Amino acid sequence: MKRVVLLAGLLVLCAGMANGVDFRVEFGPEWTPGKIERCDNEIRVYMHNTPGEGARMGYSLPFMIYGEVDSIGWLDYGGVPETGGALVINEDFGPGGTFFPSVNTINIFSPESWDGHLPDTFNHTTTCIPITGCPGWVDDIGEQLVYVMHFEVYGGFLGDPRQLCIDSIGHSNPTYDWLWTSPSGPFGGPYCIDVEVACPSPWFVDCPASSEIITRLGETFELPLQTEALCQQELTEAITDLGSVEIIDPTPEIGEVLWSLSPDSSMLGTHEVSIRIGTAVHPVSCYTTEGTACRFTVHVLNHRPTIYSACGDTVNVCIGTSMTVGFTASDPDSDPLTYVFADDAEGRATLSASKGLVTFSDSGEDGEAVYEVVVAVYDHEFDSTFCTMYFNVYTCCGDCNDDGVMNLLDILDLIDYMYGDPIEPPIIPELSDANDDGAINLLDLLQMIAYLYSTPSGPAPVRCPQ
Questions:
Q1: Buried b vs exposed e over 123-157: b needs ≥16 C-beta within 10 Å?
Q2: Structural element, H or E, at residue 147
Q3: How far apart are CA 284 and CA 293, in angstroms?
Q4: Can you give the CATH number for the domain in which 225 is found?
Q5: Last-in-domain residue among 195, 218, 253
Q6: Distance separating alpha carbons of residues 71 and 292, to the nearest angstrom
Q7: Which of 406, 403, 397 is nearest to 440 (CA)?
Q8: Residue 368 within any structural domain of the chain
Q9: From the centroid of its chain, how far is CA 213?
Q10: What is the pLDDT of residues 326-375, one digit of tens each?
């Protein structure tokens, strides 16, 4: 295909001026008159230091890309990070290069200065300090391709050519004023080309506010996304590398797609996801470019086990006795479960996972206190659920014989008392009303038996005055 090159022409210097620079601007890589034939395009700036005038020791060069097109998409070619990789600089001229290592900076003065919405601007400042041994830009190497800007054009319409230009002056920010060391000729711009977009204009996705999405096995996650087309084309294609994406509304200008994911066990972990959208009006596909993709991170997690028990509750325990609390655990994904103590109150608690029981035993030697016990349940993916229980140890009514502990002897003495068989010494009534109903009867006996011998334990008798 024929290449059309726009030349800036040689810089004409007045007599007596020294150390000038010649410029040439070329649009490429492939053009036909007034039409882009590829989505991947370039602006190339060539420079030539005037022969015989010695090395050039620095310059500051401002660029402005502007025109009648709505916007352009800068393409990442691994170039200057500040430009998203779109600007590639000759390694001798750029930061870290041979010619100007003393000071070499690319200045982008705001996010809007290089975002594809024209005009876009940047400034390249270079300096070489001779005493450091840097050579500067020598004058005997001929014309050099110094800057290449990679892009695609959006917003043009078929049959409606619009200009795209590059120049080095006319920016409202004074930082972009012409700062070449005098005397020197002008850049000679603007250099322009008529653009008629022949590749499909990409759509832009209104990506989610957060780039982190968390979902779990068995859950369906749906993410509606609005899209916008600059060329008023109907949305006809949407693809993703995880889950599925459906075109809900293909309306020109504003459309909507729905991304959804119903993860299975093979998707556990972290995934980098891209949703790309485009049109099918041209065989050249532009939807894989940066401007038409929404990228985010998806974390697919396993469900944590669920524990059904007195988690968070405070359970009363009589001094010198044991209290058994029942619990059950299940896993939504039917994973095998492992049970361990995260805190067993210094050995006071024991765990019977197969029976779903936690037993707390008080020695009777430490008086009244509250103890914390924590059970941890893990599935095979090491997702964990923790259950914390509090055991409140105090002096209970039910120590009928006042020997310091409630046990079988108290139950036997209470039976003798209730059914007319005198015992010596007799029970102490004020210590025997286990349910605190004001009477000593069968209900007290049943509560003591349920507390001491049921599994899990019945409720502890009430606190007794000491």
A1: bbbbbbeeeeebebbebeeeebebbbbbbbbbbbe
A2: strand 144-154
A3: 17
A4: 2.60.40.10
A5: 195
A6: 13
A7: 397
A8: yes
A9: 7
A10: 888 888 777 888 889 999 999 999 999 878 899 999 998 889 999 999 99
